[in-house]
Backbone:
């Protein structure tokens, strides 16, 4: 039984690693968060109703049409927030999902995050908030800003229960500002939308002369069967709500994000260890993986 479970886990990690044309170095993949979620994501991919392609047709999600139809209204609320400097990095290292993005200039303002409460979104951008609440398949949304010179390094998102939707609000309208998903590039344009599967390797750069602001949404992945859809919905409510991060005082911070503050502090010591001796650091990581596998076997 133990070997069967270990085999399923290894198969799941290999599935994630070899999915698509672009891959992380295998040693990085072993320690990547997508590997820890691999068995769950294998289930999501197996029962997914959408094609296994990096990009998906926005027209296949007609319920999202009101977002494009009202993009000027959404943009105006985003620009007001930008003027007020409310689109910003997390102030207390309590954004477990996106903390690594902040060091390259990326900023966000949460509009919706699964079942978490963000009163600041309803107060500061009521029209966008109302639009998002009227579309049940939108599980999370934010305004995301990538400044001139900003970048996001190659990565996979950890949870395959959603698909990613981007709507250009104020963009450079320039091919030097782009996202690359599994080796295919898309350049944002004002008022235009794109849908992609964020469990493929993707990265972004803004080498243009102005900032990029988009509406960034997680759309519930359509599943083949009702029971699979219900399970996906439950997992989203439980796992992803726990990763909620606040914009302002009064917004909900999920349990995982609260714990991440401790993890972030411990990470400072990890980074110092790596800087002191990279070989010793890598050997320690390998030893920890071996110890975990041994623990699973002997329990």
Residues:
């Amino acid at each position: 039984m133990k070997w069967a479970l270990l085999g399923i886990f290894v198969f799941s990690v290999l599935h994630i690693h070899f999915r698509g044309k672009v891959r992380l170095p295998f040693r990085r993949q072993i320690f990547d968060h997508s590997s820890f979620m691999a068995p769950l994501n294998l289930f999501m991919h197996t029962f997914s109703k959408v094609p296994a392609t990096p990009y998906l047709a926005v027209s296949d999600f007609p319920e999202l049409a009101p977002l494009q139809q009202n993009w000027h209204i959404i943009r105006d609320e985003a620009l007001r927030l930008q003027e007020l400097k409310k689109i910003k990095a997390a102030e207390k290292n309590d954004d477990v999902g996106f903390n690594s993005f902040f060091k390259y200039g990326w900023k966000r303002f949460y509009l919706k995050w699964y079942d978490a409460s963000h009163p600041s979104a309803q107060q500061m951008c009521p029209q966008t908030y109302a639009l998002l609440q009227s579309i049940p398949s939108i599980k999370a949304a934010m305004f995301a800003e990538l400044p001139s010179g900003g970048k996001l390094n190659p990565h996979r998102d950890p949870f395959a229960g959603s698909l990613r939707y981007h709507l250009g609000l104020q963009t450079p309208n320039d091919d030097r500002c782009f996202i690359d998903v599994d080796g295919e590039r898309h350049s944002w344009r004002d008022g235009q939308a794109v849908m992609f599967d964020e469990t493929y390797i993707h990265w972004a750069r803004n080498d243009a002369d102005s900032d990029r602001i988009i509406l960034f949404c997680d759309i519930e992945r359509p599943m083949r069967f009702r029971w699979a859809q219900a399970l996906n919905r439950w997992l989203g409510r439980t796992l992803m709500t726990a990763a909620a991060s606040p914009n302002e005082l009064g917004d909900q911070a999920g349990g995982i994000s609260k714990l991440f503050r401790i993890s972030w502090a411990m990470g400072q010591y990890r980074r110092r260890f790596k800087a002191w001796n990279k070989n010793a650091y890598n050997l320690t990581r390998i030893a920890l993986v071996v110890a975990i596998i041994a623990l699973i076997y002997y329990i």
The CA atoms of residues 59 and 65 lie 8 Å apart.
